[in-house]
Amino acid sequence: MGRLSTLFDPETVGVVGATDREGAVGRAILENLKTGFDGEVVPINPSRDEVLGLECHEDVQHAPPIDLAVVVVPPDIVLDSIRELAAAGTDDIVVITAGFAETGGDGAKRERQLREIATENDLNVVGPNSLGIMSTPTGMNATFGPEDARSGSISFMSQSGAFITAVLDWANEQGIGFQDVVSLGNKTILDETDFVREWGEDPETDVIIGYLEDIDDGQGFIEAAREVTEETPIVLVKSGRTDAGAQAASSHTGAIAGSERAYEAGLEQAGVLRARSVQELFDYARALAGLPEPESDGVAVVTNAGGPGVLTTDAVGDSTLEMASFTDETIDRLAAAMPDEANVYNPIDAIGDADIDRFGEALEIALEDPNVGSAVVVAAPTAVLPYDDLAETVIEQVETHDTPVVTCLMGGKRARDAETTLRESGIPNYFDPSRAVSGLDALARYRDSSERTIDEPRTFDVDRERAREILERARRRTDNRLGVESMALLDAYGIPTPQGEIVDDPDRAREVAERIDGDVVMKIVSPDITHKSDIGGVKVGVAAADVYDAYEDIVARARNYQPDATITGVQVQELLDLEASTETIVGMNRDPQFGPLLLFGLGGIFVEILEDTSVRVAPVDEGTAREMVDEIQAAPLLRGARGREPADIDGVVETVQRLSQLVTDFPSILELDINPLVAGPDGVQAIDLRLTVDPDELDTEEP
């Protein structure tokens, strides 16, 4: 166990603010502790000599030593109570009291002071504004909720106390049990990352689940969860699906990769399974807590009802799994065992008059097929198929074959006893076939993520000092934005760029063009003009003899379009063969929780229309960068679809890695777009660049 083990296994729990007043939170907590806690309960209240039959102490100094303190006093005396507890040697504290940062300025100040006290004394503080905590092995219910948790192997954290009370009420009815339960509250000291680490070290916790509204330290959470999910699954419901964070973004990447995509990418990289609803959260958890991992993705369906069997097949098609292809031997065995009317292919329909023996034999034959990694038993109630006996048969087959099996015993009260029997053996039963399949799907997805190898990101030899000098130019800009005039930033990090130069007069433009072999591309350079093509600010295929006139025309169009725009000059650049190439985008948007969020996708003028992109949190290793490239729908274009010569995908992957290093080295880069990054058979070239820099952050970065 980790450093929080005493939080869940105290010998003595003190309730600071205990009372016998009807309806008071201090009374509810004391009653819950008295009901089942194995250890000693110590009420503390200077106004009472006795509370609910327990001796009450006037303050912490006059009380016996307290391992865990539950603080439920008014907000204005919480800080003094915590100081007294720290002085008395109590390290673990749960602050139930509200009235902190959630209430505004005064509360936020009080919360800052609480953090200072806790940090100074190295305290483990849950809350404030918490429902409390539970631990079923010791019978400890240090909450003011109305329900005790059943015993089980799932540990549960929630940012909402009300969510916990609702879930426990429902879970008790469903027979779902827990190891530890924590209401995170305001997360002033202990947050989701701390409990992920703690439960990851707890051999009694089989699955970690949670309801979160935000994650304070995205990078820290990814690191902790990635380590924990090698052995222990994590399933989360994350509320607040919003792209509000993207509305203020000025880059393509920022507009596409909003806060919701940051969470999607971060949780996936952490190996966390994300549930879309409370029902799905527990559907996943029940399967992960009781079943072995499937050895393959092939699913066998055994049923006595054709319609539900088809529904189950559809659900498999909608998942990451696949219907298992039976071997000829399996089909021959099923044909010999089943009536002529039965379907011996997958899904196996043993037909409506199937009894226990036929159902059991069909399941046994299916589980012995080498292509079957898991199975769903789907049954409609009949007079010849007692569900209690079917449950025992399923358990026997699971124990014999060590293959994950979930059941869908359709019906109401008729299925309840059988469901209890199955649950006691770790086999979840679902009424809906699609939910049964989602449980198996969670097992397979967890298997894949836990087996995935993440390498250390590659470190390239770069010119960091040169890059810093270029970023310093942002100090001279009123809007902190840099554009193609800063292409040398990419050169400093080894990202290829075409031959060219930015000039501020037409004669110089012609000189640059004459040094370039072939025609050139010319673009207006202005931090105020985003969509250059829309205003005629780009000319492609310009001969050297026409460059002078093209320069004058581009500048005139820009001034007519936006008279107050700052025009740096015109970029004269080597013309690339785009016919044989694909325009892609590589970018970064710095997320408040997760940090640098890398984006790769189809680029050029269609980037925000098609939004064919993939996202990951930096830094990334080569495997992750390659996943980003393979993931987009346009990936076949890069691989050489319809007779095209394949692009240099290795060059694209390396560019993603180099950009990952750049934005990790310089937290001052808030947003960055390379659009397009042209990927062709002979390599990649970054054609255009746009970025936003925080000069204040530059001051904090190491030279």
Search tags:
single chain; 703 residues; alpha/beta; Rossmann fold; Dna Ligase, domain 1; D-amino Acid Aminotransferase, Chain A, domain 1; 7-stranded mixed β-sheet; 7-stranded antiparallel β-sheet; 25 helices; 30 strands; 21% strand; flat
3D architecture notes:
InterPro entries: Acyl-CoA_Synth/Transferase (IPR051538), ATP-grasp (IPR011761), ATP_grasp_subdomain_1 (IPR013815), CoA-bd (IPR003781), Ligase_CoA_dom (IPR043938), NAD(P)-bd_dom_sf (IPR036291), Succ_CoA_lig_flav_dom (IPR032875), Succinyl-CoA_synth-like (IPR016102). This is acetate--CoA ligase (ADP-forming). The chain has 703 residues and is an alpha/beta fold. Among the domains are: 292-451, Rossmann fold (3-Layer(aba) Sandwich), CATH 3.40.50.261; 499-575, Dna Ligase, domain 1, CATH 3.30.1490.20; 582-693, ATP-grasp fold, B domain (D-amino Acid Aminotransferase, Chain A, domain 1), CATH 3.30.470. It is 38% helix and 21% strand. It is built from 25 helices and 30 strands. The chain has a seven-stranded mixed sheet with strand order 9-8-11-10-12-13-14, with helices on both faces. Strands 20, 25, 26, 27, 28, 29 and 30 form a seven-stranded antiparallel sheet that branches. Helix 14 links the parallel strand 18 and strand 19 (405-409). The longest helix has 19 residues, at 433-451. The two termini are 41 Å apart. Mean pLDDT is 93; it is low at 243-255.
